[in-house]
Amino acid sequence: MSTDRGGSSDRHDRSGHGRADRHDLRHHGDTEVGGGLVDLAVNVRAGTPPPWLRELLADTLGGLAAYPDGGSARAAVARRHRRPDSEVLLTSGAAEAFVLLARCLEPRKAVVVHPQFTEPEAALREAGHPVQRLLLRPRDGFRLDPAAVPDDADLVVVGNPTNPTSILHPAADLAALARPGRTLVVDEAFADTVPGEAESLAGRRDLPGVVVLRSLTKTWGLAGLRIGYVLSDPGTVAALESAQPLWPVSTPALAAAEACSTPAALAEAEAAARATAEDRDYLLSRLAELPSIRTYGQPAASFVLIRTPGAAGIRQRLRGTGFAVRRGDTFPGLGPDWLRIAVRDKATLDAFCEALTALQL
Q1: Domain CATH for 63
Q2: Is this prediction's pTM over 0.85?
Q3: Residue 21 has pLDDT above 70, yes or no
């Protein structure tokens, strides 16, 4: 494995106009799995939800006759981030928040930083908003230069750490993008996979126009439950809440939000993040044995993005050996030579890397 600092395939288009049809913005890793394949395509932590959380969710079933009351969960999330309740909005997964933002905002110039999770752009386009893409380059380690963001952008969307690149941008760089008259949306769906939640803006209340999105999906294995939340100023939260339907978050999801915000749960999440970091470093060391595989920058989240010639064929051949990985060509800024690999335990990663080696990579 080597780190590339150049190459003709790093061509990029900072305008991004008219390119939406070149990428399937609604393709996600869950379509890669099934059929008994070992899942390295979806970035949800394996072995989750933990037993205590499954039991808690089961206990909520007796109360499903009543309409959900989100007050207690909202207060718990607010305490977790040291914010008032009015700065928290619980949502049906972080994906709902992207739709709410697209419906409530009227940006004159929306800029989405890519490669990243594609739902923000898809939601904006479906709401009728033109989108300009800022494509980060492999040769720069997919690192965002704040100066590259157009000064007149009044909506900027960026992931941190970013899916699929696994790059963690410095909080100071993102904070430099905040200004009056601009909404800065920071997708922190994977922030709790980083030890100490380094570089998070979730606790920053001094920055104008910042909207932080969080999810319980990745660490707690709750993709099927749909629970996430927004952190922002009271006015923004109120506007987004007014666009939600009544009772948008179910009683079990509210119970999960409250339970996963406790000190004990946060300690468990931190331990999981540290274990994931060790497993990720192990995966990188194994990939380094394969000369045709390249990574870029310093991966920081629960997945690794790789580049290798013929990745599309390799992905199909890996399926024949029992492993599912995420194709990269649906992400703007990437192409057919990219794959995303979810971090798993060392035994699973050994088996996966042996499968790669058998393909003579």
Answers
A1: 3.40.640.10
A2: yes
A3: no
